[in-house]
Amino acid sequence: MYYLHSNTISFGRVLVKENHRKKGLAKEMVQKAITFITEHLNEKEIRISAQSYLQKFYETFGFRQVSDIYLEDGIKHMEMFYQKNTTS
Question: Distance between CA 40 and CA 31 in Å, rounded?
Fold first, then answer.
């Protein structure tokens, strides 16, 4: 985890080795990162650089696309933003 230029926290790549995929591990890691950031660091916003093909995956956690597609390391990416819902 690290802070971006706008003082918004982010987390880096989520990687699951091929022989461990399709077991829900990526979902578990992303959810734990969100929980840690929002509950333990008391941050309300998260901004990530996501591979474009994973847009729907990150949207299931509440992220939304906030940039056009761009190339990062030759791979299509987009900036995505999460804001914790503070209304209960």
Answer: 13
In this structure, what DSSP letter does residue 6 have?
Answer: T
- 3-state class of 78 per DSSP? strand
- The runs of H, that is alpha helices, within 41-80 are 55-59
Query: pTM above the 0.70 mark?
Result: yes
- Contact of 5 with 15, CB cutoff 8 Å: no
**Segment 5-57, tens digit of pLDDT:** 667 899 988 899 999 999 999 999 999 999 999 999 999 999 999 999 999 99
Q: CA 85 to CA 6: how far, in whole Å?
A: 20
